[in-house]
C-alpha cells in the first residue's frame, strides 16, 4: 500500500488567519526572531517571550481549519495506506480538522515545558514567568515550541518515514528552515515521488519532481481528490 508523507508549513495555516514570519503587519513583524524564538531571548526577557506566545496562543485558539486541513484529514481517513503529516506549525488545526497521525516537529502552542527539568503539560490560555512547574516546582516554564538553535521533535520517526515514503508532499513551506527544507531532496533520493504545493516558488522547489501552484485551500483538495481516485 502507498505510504504518503506530507510536510506542512505556515502557508497552510495562513488562510485560517495565522500569520507567517514574512507577514508585514503580523505578530512576527513586531519583534526580532532573536528576542522571541531563541533560548537566549527567553533568558534575556522571559516576560516578553511569554507575552508573545500568549498572543499567538489566543490567535490560534480562534482559528479554524480551512479546506486544505480538511482535505488532508480526508486523505488519512480514506487512503488505504498510511498517511503521516509532519507539520512545522505549532497550531492544532490539523487535529481540529480530523487528522490523527500528526507529528509536530516544532512543538505545540497548547503545551507547556519546564526549561529546568523538561516536564511537559497542557498550557493554560495565558502563561506567566512566575508559573511553577507542576513536577519540579521551579519557575522556568516556557511554551513547548522548538526555537532556533534547538533540535526539532520526532527526528527518530521522521527519518525512517522519509526513507519509506512512496509519495512525499510539501505544502505551504518556504524551504528556508532546516532540517525540513532538505526533506524533499532526501525523499526523492530514496525513491519517493515528490510534489510541492505552494503559493509561489520556494527555495527548495528544485528538489521536487512535481509542482502545484496556488492557495493551499484550492490546490490541496484537488490533489487529494486525484490521489483518492487513483
UniProtKB/TrEMBL annotation:
It catalyses: N(6)-acetyl-L-lysyl-[protein] + NAD(+) + H2O = 2''-O-acetyl-ADP-D-ribose + nicotinamide + L-lysyl-[protein]; N(6)-succinyl-L-lysyl-[protein] + NAD(+) + H2O = 2''-O-succinyl-ADP-D-ribose + nicotinamide + L-lysyl-[protein]. GO terms for cellular component: cytoplasm. InterPro entries: DHS-like_NAD/FAD-binding_dom (IPR029035), NAD-dep_sirtuin_deacylases (IPR050134), Sirtuin (IPR003000), Sirtuin_cat_small_dom_sf (IPR026591), Sirtuin_class_III (IPR027546), Ssirtuin_cat_dom (IPR026590). GO terms for molecular function: histone deacetylase activity, NAD-dependent; NAD+ binding; protein-malonyllysine demalonylase activity; protein-succinyllysine desuccinylase activity; zinc ion binding. Its main location: cytoplasm. It is found in: Cytoplasm. The active site is at residue 106. Binds 1 zinc ion per subunit. Keywords: Cytoplasm, Metal-binding, NAD, Transferase, Zinc. It is an enzyme of class 2 (transferase). Substrate binds at residues 53, 56. Residues 1-230 form the Deacetylase sirtuin-type domain. Zn(2+) binds at residues 114, 117, 133, 136. NAD(+) binds at residues 9-28, 88-91, 172-174, 216. Its EC number is 2.3.1.286. The keyword Zinc-finger does not apply. Its cofactor is Zn(2+). It holds the Pfam family SIR2. SUPFAM superfamilies: DHS-like NAD/FAD-binding domain. Belongs to the sirtuin family. Class III subfamily. NAD-dependent lysine deacetylase and desuccinylase that specifically removes acetyl and succinyl groups on target proteins. Modulates the activities of several proteins which are inactive in their acylated form. 2 residues (Tyr-53 and Arg-56) present in a large hydrophobic pocket are probably involved in substrate specificity. They are important for desuccinylation activity, but dispensable for deacetylation activity. This is NAD-dependent protein deacylase. It comes from Roseovarius atlanticus.
